[in-house]
Amino acid sequence: MIETRESGTAAMELGGTQPMTLPESAGELAEAVVDHAALAANVRTLRSAAGTQLMAVVKADAFGHGAAPVARTCLAAGATWLGVTRVSEALELRRSGVGAPILAWLFDPARSAEAVAAGVDLSVSSPADLAAVARVSGAPRIHLKLDTGLHRSGCPGEDWSRLVSVAASLESAGRVRVAGIWSHLSHGGRPDAVPTHRQLLMFRVGLDLARAAGLRPEVVHLANTAAVQANARDTAYDLVRVGAGVYGIGEGLRPALTLRTRVVQVRRVAAGRGVGYDHVGRTTRDTHLALVPVGYADGLPRAATGRASIWVGGRRAPLIGRVCMDQVVADLGPEPVAVGTEVVVLGPGDHGEPTARDWAAWSGTNEHEIYTGIGSRVGRRHVGADWAVDRSSNGREQS
Ligand SMILES: *Cc1c(COP(=O)(O)O)cnc(C)c1O
Question: Which cofactors are required for activity (predicted)?
């Protein structure tokens, strides 16, 4: 390892450097341990709070937790649907043997044939998209999406009548099956907010128009995690689409992911020395610095520089200097730790380790971005999954 040192401290630093020991797991320097008992408990909690069917949203590799194993656990815990953004994500789930209904909502409608062949339901927001999807043989299953005020995707109100009437005639002709009608909330956690009232009102009108056109969807769905947690019962309909809550984002839920690594070097550094690029950090006392082999490429936000701390061998230690691409330095103080000491970068918080919420606060983002930012070179290790014992329980092949 090549390092630049302040000349006066070189001898002292060399004296404090110990050989590196790798963690036992598959040559990885860092791993994300995903607790499937926590995922399952969150699904059960949210489903009973909603009192409806639950769609586990496993987009973006299940918020960085690993889509296929997470999907499996959610289905075993009572989820009956899976939600993803892209068709590629849905196909990956099918390839892993998931047979449950899957809805994908952001894809190129001209390229929906593969999704239809795999039995993936597709969201449709416009007559043009509907025409493209209906060109695929096999009566694609679609969910018509109404924009009730999020103004992100979905069919604008003024085009809805036309969309539902075209969909109804295509359905009569056996060209599509309208399996769902849906929308998405802008203020899910605030059932009494004016935008929520507006969205609900518009959704009800949209449903009336769809029924008047002759549509009889299997599932109507609107709520997300925040709406379920806010007990917004009139948003629940047949199905709630829960992402964040599955992973423990939200009150009364359990974070499922622990990002852990090990100290790879420890050195003594005198007071008043700059640490890292541009010497953004500076030691305030004679101290021990631990080199920890994860950085922003692994998901630690660079914006947390100067604020973050990590859990090193049972205690919190502040980071010193910039969060780098591949590594950070923790300021241990007078008491060193051994090379190989366990580091928890984030976890549920039970032992005083930082949480995803802490990292979000340190870097001005949300927990979602912390989880989805965990890099692909961090190995995922899945623990506590029922299906690891009984692989047959939930591995139904797609028909
Ligand atoms: C991500 C997403 C969800 C899940 O929302 P959470 O707040 O994570 O529960 C539901 N619906 C759509 C359309 C989404 O994009």
Answer: pyridoxal 5'-phosphate
